[in-house]
User: Which sequence fits this backbone?
């Protein structure tokens, strides 16, 4: 839609004669440019026509002129009853009652489950690698000590008691123990 | 309706679109009433219900054409008003706020009942029912009942494709017949913003209609 029409679309839609008789709409009015443009531009005319059809459709949602609410007496009392029955809206109701909320709740649960599985498996593999590292240290140290004609069995026991130390500390401790013997 | 519509930038401010002074919804008599409801004054709430009950009924009936469920939905609307009034921020009029809640409740109802099924269960008039049974065109020049039902079905579907705010605004304009100036006063927005929002909504509705036509 061109700017001439776009800027005045509400006025154009209110003046229904603009489409039916574009020439007359333009005649002697302040909307000369609008009328002329609509008479010449098929694109704008089609779009304005579509919007006017919409406008007519929307009027179908108007209650009839003779509509009377015909409320049964005691409407306020029934509203209060409902309020008392429902109680204040809980934040949990938003998740339980709406489809979107339920989806968010399910997605959050799935995410929490995934994170939980990841944490458990990563901790387990970290433990496994620590144990593997420590056992490899023991083997290496046994080999070193055995190569120097030392009682390998005793040294291994000492070393096992220090299994919570870092690898460098463990090697140093072994060497110190060996020299003392 | 033509579906080949391009998205356009904001319409420029036209000659007659100067922004008017905003209505102050914080100091009005209505604001005092709302503050009393927020403080859980039951007499004030009763006044709100009595002031707006006919309007709420008429909005619901206009959208659903179903008297049987209108009261139930109206009760739900006022229950929502009661529970949510603390979040009312006085930027718009109370009527605009109640109107939005009412339209949303109608759409909730439609979602639950499924639009197509509901439309054919509506309690349309006896004359309409007779016309539908005999499949005769209306003799008084009015639109036949089945066409009207189809049109209502279509516009309700199209309105479900736009946001709640856009839906309320276009309904206030076209169904309630408020002018752009009145809408600006009611919503606390300036006239140009109202025009922009209405234009975009109309474009969205046209596009949705185009898509719907293509899929049929």
Assistant:
């Amino acid at each position: 839609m061109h700017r001439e029409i776009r800027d005045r679309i509400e006025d154009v839609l209110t003046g229904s004669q603009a489409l039916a008789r574009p020439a007359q709409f333009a005649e002697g009015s302040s909307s000369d440019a609008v009328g002329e443009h609509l008479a010449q531009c098929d694109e704008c005319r089609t779009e304005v026509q579509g919007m006017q059809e919409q406008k007519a459709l929307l009027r179908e949602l108007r209650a009839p002129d003779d509509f009377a609410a015909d409320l049964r007496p005691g409407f306020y009392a029934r509203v209060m009853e409902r309020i008392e029955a429902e109680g204040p809206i809980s934040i949990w109701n938003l998740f339980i009652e709406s489809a979107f909320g339920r989806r968010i709740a399910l997605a959050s649960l799935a995410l929490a489950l995934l994170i939980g599985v990841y944490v458990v498996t990563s901790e387990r593999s970290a433990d496994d690698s620590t144990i593997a590292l420590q056992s490899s240290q023991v083997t290496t140290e046994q080999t070193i000590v055995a190569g120097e004609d030392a009682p390998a069995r005793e040294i291994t026991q000492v070393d096992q008691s220090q299994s919570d130390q870092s690898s460098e500390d463990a090697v140093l401790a072994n060497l110190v123990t060996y020299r003392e013997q | 309706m033509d579906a080949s519509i391009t998205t356009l930038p904001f319409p420029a401010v036209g000659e007659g679109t100067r922004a008017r002074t905003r209505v102050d919804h914080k100091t009005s008599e209505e604001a005092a009433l709302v503050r009393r409801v927020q403080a859980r004054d039951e007499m004030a709430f009763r006044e709100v219900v009595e002031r707006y009950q006919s309007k709420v009924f008429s909005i619901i009936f206009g959208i659903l054409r179903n008297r049987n469920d209108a009261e139930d939905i109206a009760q739900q609307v006022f229950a929502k008003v009661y529970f949510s009034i603390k979040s009312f921020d006085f930027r718009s009029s109370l009527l605009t706020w109640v109107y939005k809640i009412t339209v949303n409740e109608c759409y909730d109802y439609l979602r639950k009942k499924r639009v197509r099924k509901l439309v054919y269960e509506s309690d349309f008039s006896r004359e309409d029912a007779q016309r539908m049974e005999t499949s005769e065109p209306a003799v008084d020049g009015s639109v036949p009942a089945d066409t009207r039902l189809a049109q209502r079905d279509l516009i309700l579907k199209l309105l479900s494709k736009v946001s709640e705010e856009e839906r309320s605004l276009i309904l206030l304009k076209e169904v309630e017949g408020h002018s752009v100036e009145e809408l600006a006063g009611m919503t606390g927005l300036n006239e140009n913003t109202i025009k922009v929002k209405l234009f975009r909504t109309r474009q969205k509705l046209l596009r949705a209609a185009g898509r719907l036509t293509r899929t049929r």
